[in-house]
Design a protein that fits this description.
It is a multi-pass membrane protein. By secondary structure, the chain is an alpha+beta fold. It has 11 helices and 10 strands. The protein has 2 domains: about 170 residues, Beta-Lactamase; about 130 residues, Heat Shock Protein 90 (2-Layer Sandwich). Bound molecules: adenosine-5'-triphosphate and magnesium ion. Magnesium ion binds next to helix 9.
């Protein structure tokens, strides 16, 4: 028992000290430590909940020359094991000879002794620890079962932690993939609307403008000012539609590149709002089209936020490449800033959230920093450039 106490302390600290991402390795190591301490030829931990018939994933520690549990376990064997686990009783080949028949289906060689010990994780039945002896003649007595149960419960809790972590990682990846689809779909729709606005509405308005010009030249003097006023109104609408179309899908990125598109957008905002814009873009930085579009959208949203919320007078946009291939994009204003960032990030508005999501899609980190009180907000995007860029 003293020996088991030492193993217990050793494996507990190994499992507790391991980072969740490295747990698989730690579990395999501690399982082997338990195998040696318990003097068993093979230990396998088999979970109950994902006992997928014919592909029962398990952790295992095997002595030299001992056969592993085979990968493809016959469905009838899995179902019988499940039934035994659900009973929650220790089943030993010494007292239940039928178990030897069942156990011999797990591998080519028949073990001398076999025991199934139910183990629990986080207070609930988790699965079983199966111990098999092929060479060692050790009996699986009460003391053995007691020690194996204690060790097995600790290992089961750690495996449950890994499973939980994997599920969390998988669901995070699913969320990112879903966001990618939604944002991609939104971009496609925006592009279609932008094209319709440009190719259809703008053209029809332009020819209406030409016809109005013609009407103005043919009409009497009294009607001319009214027609000219309509023509001017029409010209304004046409320009607004062009702006809208460009905003919806910045074809300008494809045509003149991201740098020129940012400069042109910043200039437009400056002219429209009176904000002093300082744009400093490192021309060595090159992005693929998808990344460029997301970056442009992040800048668009940041500037639109400055106009809507900041009451600022100046904005700085800086794109800078570090020597270590990291690129930073910073959009900073001299506004009042955001007093309570936590509250803002949890609010139902979409702008800041969508910047973070777009960042995730392109493998960038987006962060918001409210500078000293009343000295503005910085939106920072950091991305690592691969290859020759
Ligand atoms: N540059 C800024 N200066 C000051 N406050 C800001 C700035 N940018 C964002 N905020 C604050 O953060 C909040 C959240 O911004 P967010 O862009 O998510 O939403 P929104 O602009 O209100 O709505 P939308 O969903 O249309 O973008 C804003 O309502 C505003 O209070
Ligand atoms: Mg916004």
């Amino acid at each position: 028992m003293e020996r088991i106490k030492d193993v217990l302390i050793s494996i507990s600290s190994k499992l507790l000290d391991s980072h969740t991402a490295d747990m698989e390795k730690a579990i395999t190591e501690v399982l082997d430590e338990c195998r040696t301490a318990l003097n068993v030829d093979r230990i396998s931990c088999l979970p109950l909940d994902n006992a997928v018939v014919e592909n029962w994933f398990h952790y295992e520690a095997i002595g030299v020359g001992i056969p592993p549990v085979q990968k493809q376990i016959p469905a009838s064997v899995v179902l019988e094991y499940r039934r035994l686990i659900e009973q929650g009783q220790v089943v030993c080949s010494d007292t239940s000879p039928d178990l030897m028949e069942l156990a011999s289906n797990l591998q080519r060689e028949r073990p001398l002794r076999h025991v199934l010990i139910p183990i629990r994780a986080m207070g609930k039945p988790w699965g079983l620890m199966a111990c098999a002896n092929f060479v060692s003649s050790q009996q699986f007595d009460e003391d053995f079962v007691h020690s194996a149960t204690i060790l097995g419960n600790i290992i089961a809790s750690s495996i449950a932690r890994v499973t939980h972590y994997d599920e969390l990682k998988r669901s995070q990846q699913e969320v990112i993939a879903r966001n990618r689809r939604i944002i991609g779909e939104r971009e496609r729709e925006r592009r279609n609307i932008a094209r319709d606005l440009h190719d259809d509405f703008s053209q029809r308005l332009a020819s209406l403008g030409i016809e109005m010009g013609l009407a103005a030249s043919l009409c009497d003097e009294a009607s001319r000012p009214v027609i000219m006023q309509c023509a001017n109104g029409l010209a304004d609408i046409t320009r607004d539609i062009q702006h809208l179309s460009r905003h919806l899908h910045p074809v300008v990125i494809e045509r003149v590149g991201l740098h020129a598109a940012i400069e042109s957008h910043a200039k437009q905002i400056g002219e429209r709002t009176g904000l002093i814009m300082t744009v400093d873009l490192d021309h060595d930085v090159v992005f693929d089209d998808e990344t460029a579009l997301h970056i442009y959208r992040i800048i668009q949203e940041s500037l639109s936020n400055v106009v809507k919320h900041a009451n600022a007078s100046q904005v700085w946009i800086k794109l800078h490449k570090h020597k270590n291939q990291w690129v930073d994009l910073i959009i900073r204003d001299d506004s009042v800033g955001i007093a309570n960032q936590g509250m803002v990030m949890n609010s139902p508005s979409l702008g800041l959230q969508s910047m973070v999501e777009r960042g995730e899609l392109i493998g960038a980190q987006v962060s918001f920093k409210s500078n000293a009180p009343k000295s503005g907000l910085s939106v920072k995007l950091s991305i690592q450039q691969m290859g020759d860029h």
